[in-house]
Amino acid sequence: MKLQASIETALNRQINHEMAAAYSYLAMEAWFEQQNLAGFATWMRVQREEELEHARLIFSYVHDRGGKVTLGAVDGPQGEFGSPREVFARASELERGNTKAIHEVYELALKEKDYATQSMLKWFIDEQVEEEKTTTEIEALLDMAGDNRSALLLLDAKLGSRGTGEG
Ligand code: FEO
Question: Is 24 touching ligand 1 by the criterion CB < 6 Å?
């Protein structure tokens, strides 16, 4: 069954959300590089790659359903932050926004009785639970570290192992 126009539009919007998230994480990676926090920067790189993969999955799905991908503009992301804690507060906010966006597409797929899109989106719904949990956990760890530079460096080392199979 060919993709309905309303679902196609919503999925294209979601591709844009995922690309915007990737761009935001790229800006956060740059900020951490400037702070010489290479582990945090690595974490952001892996996160950005995940967002690009999310966009790619929806991109492929639109094509699988005979739809048309239409790419919109991606705004420049926030690039200045006051602290690592502020970066992760922004990351959590971004993920909550993305969860809301995915839920809206799912709502539409329910309304339009598009079962295939509902099924495809279930993976994203579960993934968002993980993403929100992870950024919130790091916020809590940063709260614990407070102004302690040694604790921050330990956290930097821990986050730097992401993507190596150890983090
Ligand atoms: Fe693709 Fe972080 O959600």
Answer: no
